[in-house]
Amino acid sequence: MGKKLKFGIVGCGGIYTWAHYYAYENNENVEVVAFCDIKIEKAYASAEKLGVDKSHCYADYKEMLEKEELDAIDICTPNYLHSIVAVDALNKGIHVFCEKPDAVSTEEAKKMQDAAEKNGKVLMVMRNNRYNNYSKFLKKYIADGKMGEIYTARCGWRRRRGIPGKGGWFTTKAQSGGGPLIDLGVHMIDLCIWLMGNPTPVAVTGCTYCKFADNDAGADSEHSKFGEASAEGTFDVEDLAMGFIKFDNGACMQVEFSWASNIEREKNFIELRGTRAGASTDTTDDVFKIFTEENGTIVDIIPKLPEGGPGGHAQNIFHFVDVVNGDAKPDFEPIQGVNMVKILEAMYKSAETGKEVEL
Ligand SMILES: NC(=O)c1ccc[n+]([C@@H]2O[C@H](COP(=O)([O-])OP(=O)(O)OC[C@H]3O[C@@H](n4cnc5c(N)ncnc54)[C@H](O)[C@@H]3O)[C@@H](O)[C@H]2O)c1
Hints:
six-stranded parallel beta sheet, globular, 359 residues
């Protein structure tokens, strides 16, 4: 077991409060010693919950990095700030855990990668879906060769209604980098690529649509709780994205993400097709099946997975702590983040130009 790491939190909004917090309460390997939020009362509230004095709360993250002795920070701010805060912290010799998406442009993702390498510090970006029980089962099943060669994937997260913080930073391109593609795509595309053994993307096509900016019909799903809505705000991002990705090993992937569209209901899914077996998950309906052959006949396998335990976000943070302490090899490398942002950026470019984008 390594030493107790001193953490600072930057951004004490929805995802910190609803997910990251649970990684820090009763964590014997980590002590959260400082909190930052431009809305200082949010920093105060988060500090109080973990018994940290108000004097260690900041509205300016630079002041926090200056005044506190931190081993690591956890960035939970709007997307456009991820790379700015991460690079500043890495250059001060502080390890960085950061929420997804890695960055809002490939250039910025590379700056984060460079800063981590130059300073010899750990940079890890949230990939909480890799820690789902079905994901861990599949990773091992695939590593054992039971799916053979995986040559295609499909994935998506389609919401009928579920626009986060409408009019706030989520729907403002300058702050979010995009709509459901960058927000939800990063989760499911990463999960498929990771399960496929991290092939390198080589070409991307996509279409995006913005049809719900002025439409408030129907109840929003629970996902609308993310971010802060603003009636007077901006909505200049897509609400639906469809796309296609080709990889260097000949594999391909079809993707689909929406915050709002006229479909029956929400669906969050991946589908992998291998030469020996296929797999399909739908977390909305709690379905996980493997399609294979036994004794010369086709069979479906329904794994009975363990329930309970820490959520994916907390498990990802525990892994980061193990890596910083030298107790684990990183499962996430910054190059994976660069490749992810390349895909997203290329899909937006393809949607604009109507052409396939080579990477
Ligand atoms: N992994 C997941 O499942 C998941 C889910 C939701 C959101 N997220 C990601 O988490 C991040 C935050 O999303 P959220 O839903 O918590 O949004 P949010 O708006 O609820 O929280 C963001 C917080 O950052 C603060 N902030 C803004 N600018 C700041 C600055 N310069 N310095 C310090 N604090 C600042 C805001 O005041 C707010 O409290 C986003 O990048 C989002 O993509 C991830």
